[in-house]
Amino acid sequence: MGTSEIYLIALTAILGVPYLVWRLLRTEYWAPLVVVQIVGGILLGPGVLGAQFPATHAFVFNPQVMGALNGVAWWAVMMFVFVAGLELDLSDAWTHRRETSITAACALLTPLAFGALAAALLLRMPGWIGPRGTYAQAVLGIGMACAVTALPILVLLMEKLGIFRRPLGQRMLRYASLDDIAIWGVLALILVDWERMGRQGLFLVAFAVAAFAIRALFRRMPEQDRWYLSLIWLAAVGFAADWSGLHFMVGAFLAGVVLDAHWFAREKLDQFREFLLLAVMPVFFLSTGLRTDFGVGGGMGAAVVIGAALLFLVASVAGKLAGVHLAGRLLGWRKGEASLIGWMLQTKALIMIIFVNVLLDREIVTSETFTALLLMAVGSTMLTVPMTKPRMARLGTPGDE
After folding, report:
1. Is the pTM of this model over 0.70?
2. Nearest-5° angle of CA 268, CA 259, CA 158?
């Protein structure tokens, strides 16, 4: 069988298996399709399918097929991160800057501290820090992974719950937007390479100049040309960021954040994001699942990785809830709001997975640490809707006063 035929077999499994599970088992309440796709990637990976059927796994996901799939996955996730940066609306956050900054800081720093503490305990054992990572980088990276809120998934769940356009939904959007910026800032800090500081400094200076030029150019162009030019801009900035020693994902976010969303029709932007989630992001989820590893050296295996995932999950959930409750107390929110917002901000799939993929690419964490964090992200996201719906019912129609 030729590589193209095997590639299409892999693609059929990537797209078909999660959809059938999601539709036939009706998992939407506790696991949206995107979560099922991530879990599907883990199940199709070497830790599950590869362990049970090694010959079949090696045949379907051979190096040639994986090379083709990874190319699609890289471009898919770059476009997705670009759109996330493009859709950040900082003007609304500035209008409500006191409330937004206090809540965003509490919702980010508290789970970061909880996650970093959990990491500091875990990383005393061997097998969790990557060959090019330091203890400080790994602690900060894991702490940030525990603090992340996935803005695109938050929007998806708020739309399903009917609160996206309501005042409370817009508030949560502001909190998550500020934290999104912090996530990529911390990632850039973790990736700083002191031996390549010259390249990174040159990239930042050149990017600032290019950003002014691209904004001036976009103002003069029709919308159709903006779409095409934005993809060229994305590829160029991604390359420059990777060349400098940062990651192409940092470049993708920067490429989007310097552009204005109102330069693109809202309907087309929504359709583009939905197309990415439907058509190409499942390939990224599969390639992510293929990087999971449950075998920590020393024979403890899956139990150790799952135990680490539970530790991170407790740190993440408790830290986020504690931080949001602190913000609610400082700002005088009504009873029940902090709990609702705290659970809604638990969504971690996508952005956290992208974040941790970068840490694994740069060998700051091992595949075992990556697997534990991936399981934590899935668990945290799956808790969101079941924990939120009863609180919404008790509050009535939240945030409309």
Report:
1. yes
2. 55
